[in-house]
Amino acid sequence: MSIARITLFRQWQPFRDGTYRCSGGRSAEGFDSTIVEVIATDGTAGYGEMAPLGSFYDPAFAEGARGAMRELAPRLIGQPAGGIDALNRRMDLLLKGHPYAKSAIDMALWDLAGRRSGLSLATMTGGAEGDSVPLYRSIAQEAPAAMAARAQKYIAEGYRRLQVKVGLDVREDIERLEAVRAAVPSDTVLFCDANASWGTAETRQFLSATRSIDYVLEQPCATYEENLAIRSACDRPLVLDETIDSVNTLLRALADSLADGVTIKLARVGGLTMTRLIRDIAAARNLKITIEDTGGAQIDTAAYFGLMLSTPQELRQHTVDFHNWVTVANARAAFTIANGKMCLPTAPGLGVEVDRMALGEPMFSAG
Ligand code: 0XW
Ligand code: MG
Q: Do both 136 and 264 map to the same domain?
């Protein structure tokens, strides 16, 4: 059974809650998503999705993904569809870098393999533990009072874990955290995510002013070296997100005892295959693990949900419900959310029924 056809679709996914802001004035109005359909010679179809957050979050942009996929797709036709590792090596050979562009293709191959074998992604990647994954909701950057109000709204919607976006003016960031902490129930888990925007000075200032508040610090600085420099001043769990872009950075962070947890994003590392490898190495050292992505809707959410479900339960931090961030859908999916946790009944592959009508006209097809 080999790859017979690869088709690309584009879907614009506006944000339900308006403009999404993070540090440094970066903002987006929605996700510019690319969906890949891979059809095998036996007629089975698999789907994958990739959406960057604007073009400012990771070294990735939507047209770049589509351009790279156009380049890759014709050269995958006729290859054995079940050899996912071999196909990843082939993609790396044909196109250096651009992991975000390979992510949706890799995801579609896993979906295809699951549909053909009757196995869910969670089963194929180690076996599901339990049936739910804790969720968090990001509070996009605004004035402290507006963020506190937004936090209360999310608590009312059932979220129990919040990610406070900081990383701007550090004095205001301190007020942001204080305002949110005061506005939510005391058992709410808070992460402060600076999205790699502070220097070591700002990070030290923030840490010393917020000693009495319970929160986890996520990706304070941009470079590996800056994060390492503030590690000894950080008296609370430190989670790396933007830094974790490969197995190598994780190995380095483990050698330096730099992180207590990692956020692994499918698109950043190149898809489910590479995420699984990084996840397994992180799990072997008992790091806390978040698996998520840079954006997308039902297809993408189902993919990282499946991998989160096969992550040891005691190591799971949380994940996002991107399909609830946006106002359009790309698949029928039986997601349910209760007590701040998300469920999706396991079914072959990603476990969603892609809505071909919602995808519109194909942008490109090979094979
Ligand atoms: C909150 N996110 C998962 C959404 C955007 O892709 C950025 C990312 C983050 O960790 O900042
Ligand atoms: Mg983050």
A: yes
Q: Which amino acid is at 181?
A: R
pLDDT band at 168 (very low <50, low <70, confident <90, very high): confident
Ligand 1 close to Cβ of residue 242 (< 6 A): no
Q: Pick the residue whose CA is nearest to atom 1 on ligand 1.
A: 138
Ligand 1 atom, smallest distance to 219 CA: 10
User: Is 288 one of the catalytic residues?
Assistant: no
Condensed to tens digits (0 to 9), the pLDDT of residues 132-162 reads: 999 999 999 999 999 999 999 999 999 999 9
Clarify whether residues 112 and 137 are in a common domain.
no
Q: Which domain holds residue 75?
A: 3-118
How far are the Cα atoms of 32, 231, 334 from residue 331, in angstroms, in the given order?
16, 42, 10
**pTM of the predicted protein model:** 0.97
Q: Is residue 165 annotated as a catalytic residue, yes or no?
A: yes
**Atom 6 in ligand 1: residue holding the nearest Cα:** 294
What domain count does the chain have? 2
Domain CATH code at residue 188:
3.20.20.120
The confidence band for 25, taking pLDDT boundaries of 50, 70 and 90, is: confident
Which residues fall within 8 angstroms of residue 20, CB to CB, at 6 or more apart? 27, 28, 29, 53, 138, 140
Q: From the CA of 13, how far away is ligand 2's center (Å)?
A: 20
Average pLDDT (355-365) is 96
